[in-house]
Amino acid sequence: MTLNHLVPRLAVAARKQDDRETKLKPFRNWRVHVDHGVLNVMPFLAKGLSDRDRVILRCDATALAEVVRKGVYTAVDVLTAFIKAAVAAQDTTNCLTEICFEDALERARELDEHMEKTGNVVGPLHGVPVSIKDHIKVKGLDTSTGYTAWAYNTVAEEDALVVKILRDAGAIIYVKTQNPQTLLSLETNNNVFGRTCNPFNRSLTAGGSSGGEGALIACGGSPLGVGTDIGGSVRVPAAHCGLYGLKGSVARLPHSGLLGSYDGLDAIIGCVGPMATSARDLALFCSVMLEAEPWLREPPLLEMPWKENVARGHGLPERLSIAILYDDGVVRPHPPILQALDMYKQALENAGHEVIKWDPLDHQKGWDLIVKLYLLDGGAEYHETIQAGGEWEVPQSKWILDHARGRRPYTPHEILRLNVEREAFRANALAHWNATKHRTATGRPVDAILCPVAPTLAPPHDSTSWWGYTSHWNLLDLPAVVFPVGQYSAPMWVPADLSPPRNAMEDFITRQWSPNTYDHAPISLQLVGRRLNEERLLAILGVIENVMPPADSVPFSRRFSHGTNGHYKATDG
Amino acid sequence: MTLNHLVPRLAVAARKQDDRETKLKPFRNWRVHVDHGVLNVMPFLAKGLSDRDRVILRCDATALAEVVRKGVYTAVDVLTAFIKAAVAAQDTTNCLTEICFEDALERARELDEHMEKTGNVVGPLHGVPVSIKDHIKVKGLDTSTGYTAWAYNTVAEEDALVVKILRDAGAIIYVKTQNPQTLLSLETNNNVFGRTCNPFNRSLTAGGSSGGEGALIACGGSPLGVGTDIGGSVRVPAAHCGLYGLKGSVARLPHSGLLGSYDGLDAIIGCVGPMATSARDLALFCSVMLEAEPWLREPPLLEMPWKENVARGHGLPERLSIAILYDDGVVRPHPPILQALDMYKQALENAGHEVIKWDPLDHQKGWDLIVKLYLLDGGAEYHETIQAGGEWEVPQSKWILDHARGRRPYTPHEILRLNVEREAFRANALAHWNATKHRTATGRPVDAILCPVAPTLAPPHDSTSWWGYTSHWNLLDLPAVVFPVGQYSAPMWVPADLSPPRNAMEDFITRQWSPNTYDHAPISLQLVGRRLNEERLLAILGVIENVMPPADSVPFSRRFSHGTNGHYKATDG
Fold first, then answer.
1. DSSP conformational letter for B296
2. What whole-number distance in Å separates Cα of residue B549 and Cα of residue B486?
3. DSSP string spanning A365-416?
4. Quick one: which of A341, A224, A340, A348 has its CA closest to A279?
5. ipTM of model
6. Which CATH number describes the domain made up of B4-560?
7. Key word Cell division present in the record (chains A, B) (predicted)?
8. How high is the pLDDT of residue A571?
9. Quick one: pLDDT at residue B273?
């Protein structure tokens, strides 16, 4: 055990962790030990990797599917490389929960035999390893979801729909990843497996709630992961770990077969979303999901096939109008984020695109509303599950539950009033977006909003406290994609002036800024599109990344820029 | 006043009715008086009509748009004819609420001037009169919605989105129509304006809750009406009045700007839907709505343009597989309805289509669930509004409210459990539909379900008691269209054997059967399609109506068969 100091030792937790340890034992040759004092573990992860492994790990999922299809590498070669990296990721960041490497290797051998026999792949993800967030059901594996009460009581009898479709497409499910207690957290910590660290700087959070995916993929331990997002849970870990992550519109991607508290909540609905090392992998994931016609298997899903040509830019105007949201009016982002937005503004304008400022629409009011929708019963269901497991609230659970602590459950009448408020908020925002046509040179409303993902880079553990840059788009049900734009380096930082805080929340976050705290943290941005226009959003991201590819001088970004600069276009490998 | 015996005389009701009377006065030359003892008023409605009026009133909305566009008739000609018929409809069935004939005539004159000046129409509904159900906001008019408490307190400051789009397309709004107290009723009766009768037989209900539309359109007083449906409220009055009516999938058609109880309810959501005298008019309505891109004005709406070519049959297999639902397992329909289903089975098979039996999926359980979703608070909001107006529950309000009388409001936890149950019900039904592929010769799941609209033809007032044939499809969010197939004639009826009742509800409805009760009542059927496939549903209806057009020998159906047999195909006029 390498990370005992991060892990509570409840009896059931000890058993879960021992079980995980047992599953890792056969792969002990690939284990990595890094001193606790070392914050950035990225340089240490290559131990035990062959040259072939290194080549494989530099591929995104799109490229992996291609090299396996072309017979350059076998599915076993590919999976082996990712298992090695996953073991190293676990040893350094504590990102894994359930492990099924043996079954996965067996499946890889089957896929290789199938290729050899028939000359054909079984589907577009033939031989691509895919990791799954813990609360998404994988047949035969536990779904403890960060609750001690659920550990060993939630072995899945069947796969979630997203997992089924992945398997049918040839993907190999080999590992499940950490999520926090309650899932309603933008960090990743629970009393079953403990805390997940950011591999770029272990004093910082990997983000959450899909933080296990964030750390694992950043370490090279997975090319493509499946997360979920109801307030930022795909986007924040993607941002904090320097990855691409997509939260689509509600009901576009399969969402059945998940465990979590508040099943049946209509008032605010989460989304399954992909996390990856390239934008084109996000599109690949969506395309695989929608080609399976999931609306014939999950009633709420919309019969809206993936428009590949739109995702590739068909119909996009040559000159884009992009709105930039610098400051949501509640918490001004930390200086590196503002600097990144300015860089993109310049690059977009230099390339002939139009940039206007986005006037934020009351993010505080939006937050006050969404947190009520999250906690209609005052948090009772969370409290009950935590108590049932004989555990305690981890700090980020406490932080969110404090928003409703002691409040009685809402009545049906109160719930309906909140829904009415939500609809009015959405209608207002839609009109606001439409009205940008009066401010653009093109006379069109803006094509997308470029904005921060959070007011900070990955913050120190247990300190995340403003969701308004991500939860706002859940409240509005707008698709949003996160992409890496650089890496913060403390020694190279030129101090900037900070504005005086406007409120207690901003005061807290302003005080969080210190040039040294965030050393090596990824810098990421978010692009927000029109509802149900996921394809167009990715096409716009492609344009933006063409205008300014992630800097090659930034170490971590090499993984995202092998030939395609990570943005979405046809593979040229 | 012609219908005093049907109308309560609360002070506010008296004032509303007097106001309506005042608005009708300038049109007194066209008023119709029919003895109370006369049940079928249809033969008496032509009084005061010119030959031109008669030609105009035989047109459906599609044809009206065409004759106005071509200059055959002016918008004023058209509107005048419909106002005459609307006055007669009011005098005989009590179907109107708010009247704005003068403003409408002014608008018609404007439209005619516009045509004269520019040679162009303002939109696809240029000069087509459209009637609006009372609870849908029309700027400047009251929205009393069947509640005395709301009378004079709900003058709309702006149009509902559906009304805005209609006006932009050139439609003329000239009248609002009756809906029942609570809106949650399949009949139409309230303490503001009283009861609406079925023009084919005034001892029978016109259906509800869009019963004002049903009676008005059946009388020739409107070519196209806008209703709403959360349990059958478009389809039941369409059926009972021999009309076409469409309840689409949730979020396909504009639904904002409506007044009603339980605003903000997510658990079960209603739909705006058109009522008309031809299937092609339903398609015209949808096409006008979706060409306006309403998703840019109402956030919940889906960006799903109207696929005109699909509605016209593009992509439809030559041989259809249709499932017929004869009996929902709770209440066997009355003999004329079973006979109609058998006729369609024969005709479909004779035309080379496949027909299989639809095994019903627990309509009782579905009803027990949906009625809980309607009444999450035990009905408190209805009770409060009724009490606030100093009025009483009309019998059908009492009937529905009895389902939850005295029950405490559900907690958030209970609401979520109901939602989970709803989703499981939907998933089960989707799998059930998919599984029909094992029973069809084509190997495809069935294309649509043909079924009753209700277990009875339009029943005597205050006796509607089984919603399971319509509310079932609201619970599943499947699109459903109602179409007329004939007219019941008591003297021509050959008695049929009735099965022994299986439960108290069926016992009640079996006892309701008596050949003489339903004389002249329309016979209608319902066709149910796949979610969000409104276009395909109408295309299938077109095939079915080609196989068996409404009998020309049936008096009322003449209105639906002028050249196109009412089904949806390109105009050939």
1. G
2. 10
3. HHHHHHHHHHTTTTTHHHHHHHHHTT----HHHHHHHTTTTTPPPPPHHHHH
4. A224
5. 0.94
6. 3.90.1300.10
7. no
8. 31
9. 98
The SS3 assignment for A493 reads coil
Considering only the beta carbons, identify the residue of B303, B409, B434 that sits closest to A412: B409
In A325-455, which ranges are E strands?
Answer: 354-357, 448-451
User: What SS3 state is found at B276?
Assistant: strand
Cα separation, A3 vs A6, in Å, equals: 6
Dig out the tokens for A373 from the structure: 């929708």
Min Cα–Cα distance to chain B from A446, Å: 13
Q: Which residues of A touch B533 (CB under 8 A)?
A: 303
> Among candidates B100, B106, B168, which has minimal Cα distance to B138?
B100
> Over the stretch B170-185, which tens digit does the pLDDT of each residue have?
999 999 999 999 999 9
- Catalytic positions of B are 133, 209, 233
Torsions phi, psi of B371, nearest 5? -70, -30
Rounded Cα distance between A161 and A295, Å, is 11
The confidence score (pLDDT) of residue B48 equals 84
Give me the total of CB pairs closer than 8 Å, taking one residue from chain A and one from chain B. 104
Tens digit of each residue's pLDDT (9 = 90 or more) over A79-105:
999 999 999 999 999 999 999 999 999
CB contact under 8 A, B415 and A419: no
Is any Cβ of chain B less than 8 angstroms from the Cβ of A404? no
- Residues on chain B touching A431 (C-beta within 8 angstroms): 297
pLDDT tens, residue by residue, B460-510? 999 999 999 999 999 999 999 999 999 999 998 887 778 899 999 999 999
| Per-residue pLDDT at B524 | 97
Tell me if A39 sits within 8 A of A520, measured CB to CB.
yes
- The list of chain A residues with pLDDT below 50 reads 1, 552-573
Give the pTM.
0.95
Q: Does residue B122 belong to the interface with chain A, where contact is any CB pair within 8 Å? A: no
**Annotated catalytic residue A233:** yes
Nearest chain B Cα distance for residue A564, angstroms: 31
Place of tokens 């904090």: A240
Chain B residue with the nearest C-alpha to that of A416: B264
Amino acid at A40: N
Selected for mutation to probe chain B from A158, A304, A531 (highest B CB count within 10 Å) is A531
Q: Does A262 touch chain B (CB under 8 A)?
A: yes
Residue with tokens 């008032």: A267
> Which tokens belong to B418?
């109901």
What is the rounded distance in angstroms from the CA atom of residue B481 to the CA atom of residue B473?
Answer: 11
User: Which two three-digit tokens encode residue B546?
Assistant: 């080609």
Q: How far apart are CA B286 and CA B61, in angstroms?
A: 13
Low-confidence spans in chain B with pLDDT less than 50: 1, 552-573
Q: Which helix (H) or strand (E) holds B272?
A: strand B271-276
Q: Scan residues 273-302 of A and list those with Cβ closer than 8 Å to B.
A: 295-300, 302
Q: Pick the residue of B161, B261, B269, B419 with the most A CBs within 10 A to test the interface with A by mutation.
A: B419
Question: What class does CATH assign to A4-33+52-481+522-560?
Answer: alpha beta
Q: Which amino acid is at B367?
A: W
Block residue for tokens 């930039």? A324
Catalytic residue, candidates A131, A144, A185, A209: A209
CA dist., res. A235 & res. B423, Å (int): 27
Active-site residue, A210 included: no
- Residue by residue, DSSP assigns A283-296 as HHHHHHHHHT-GGG
pLDDT reported for residue A556? 33
- Give every strand in the sheet of A96-99, ordered side by side: A96-99, A172-177, A129-133, A224-229, A271-276, A244-247, A480-487, A522-528, A448-451, A321-324, A354-357
Instruction: Indicate the residue of B295, B413, B434 with minimum beta-carbon distance to A296.
Output: B434
Which residues contact residue B455 at a Cβ distance below 8 angstroms, ignoring those fewer than 6 apart? B331, B332, B333, B334, B337, B466, B469, B509
Task: Tell me how far apart the alpha carbons of residues B45 and B56 are, in angstroms, rounded to a whole number.
Answer: 14
Residue A307 with chain B: CB contacts under 8 Å: none
